[in-house]
Structures are given as structure tokens and as C-alpha cells.
What we know:
Blueprint: H1 12-21, H2 29-39, E1 47-54, E2 66-70, E3 81-84, H3 88-96, E4 100-101, H4 104-113, E5 120-123, H5 128-131, H6 135-138, H7 158-166, E6 169-173, E7 179-186, H8 191-207, E8 218-225, E9 231-233, H9 235-240
Parallel strand pairs: 3-4, 3-5
Antiparallel strand pairs: 1-7, 1-8, 2-6, 8-9
Helix pairs in contact: 2-8, 3-7
Amino acid sequence: MSTEAVTRSHGKRHDDSIxxxxxxxxxxxxxxxxxxKEMAPxxxxxxxxxxxxTNADPRHADQLIRSxxxxxxxxxxSQRVVAFVQGEAExxxxxAGADFIGDADLIRKIEQEGWVDxxxxxxxxxxxxxxxxxxxxxxxxxxxxNPRTGTxxxxxxxxxxxxxxxxxxxxxxxxxxxxxxxxxxxxxxxEEQLLQNLAAAxxxxxxxxxxxxxxxxxKTIHLTSTMxxxxxxxxxxAQALRVE
Length: 244
């Protein structure tokens, strides 16, 4: 989804929502969250999305941005977790709440059928050789376990990894247009919860800044919901938010 414009086909309620936001641009974070909740056009609990356009250059490997953050109030979505483990680690993962155990049959199903009915995958180091061939399926969806994102762990760390995955862990990485996209909650969250999650997300991106990126990291910040228009947020005020 573009952070600069909304290109979906919308009805009258969406047009009315757009009119509500034309008087102030960009918005202070608290105002953006308040208006986003007020104008919700859908009749279901929409996901609130954060879209950041950076000044990084995706053509250079030393400017790519990829990291994870733990949202203080979660995402409001249940995360299904696959644990690629073997031996005693299978029992640990199952007792810790893994939804699927990535044994040989499941690995074959992913490889041959493209099955990806989960949001997070974790693995122990010894399993990486077996699941390396799944990169074609999992890699392009951002589902491949990776030490940099805390999803390749030792057996004793499996419970923590699963707990974090189910409790609000969000992975983000820059796309080819230098944009970052991540969910920061649901419209049913109260305003303070959404602001706290926004603060955590912006801080995580700031901390993931590559040294090769010069000048301002943030070009624009937008908030939107699943069916709503985007609201441009004041970059300086978003950066000034603090997680309490």
C-alpha cells in the first residue's frame, strides 16, 4: 500500500472520511489516532497500519533496514507459530504453545505445496540446514527464521521466542521503494495503547538506522486502517513520543 495515496475504490463513507481530514495536514500523532478511530468506515475491527517512507537507498546493501520490535500492547492479532525443531526441543516447543511443529512432513508440505498458514516461524540452529531449501517459499514472505530477528534460537530460548511472537512481536524490513510497513494494533485499542505502540515502532526503526544513511532517516510517516484513508503524521512529533 502506498503511503502517499490511497488507490482503492471507495464509497460515500470513505469520501466523507477524506473530507474530515482535509483541514489539518500533517497531524500530530494523538490527533491522527483520534481521527482514525472516529472515521472508521468498516464494520469490523480494522488493523491500524504504520507506513514509513525513509531516506535510505534500497540499492545499497549497507542502507537496508530490517529489525523487530515488541509492541507494548500487542497487535491484536493471534500469531500462529511454526517451530522447526527436533528431539527434546519438540516437547519444549509444544508445551510453549507452538501451533505447528516443523517436522519432515511439514517441511515437505511447505516445499511442495507452498503451505504458509502461519505468521511466524522459529528454528533451532541445527534445523537450518534442513529448512534452507524452504527459502524459495518462506523468504519472499518474510517467514524464514533468521538470527538477526531472533527467530533462530537455542532450545532453552524456544519458550521466550514463542511468547514474544504471540505477544506483540513485529518484524519490519524496507521494501524496494524505501518504505517500511507494520501493524501497530486494532481500532478497538484505546488511543493511548495505539500511541504507545506507535512510539515503540518509531523507536525501533530509529534504532535500526544503518550508519550509511545520512541526513534525516524519516521522510514521511502515515497511519491508516484496513479500509480507511491514510493520515500523514508529523514526523518530529512522532519521533518525540516515548514508550512508558
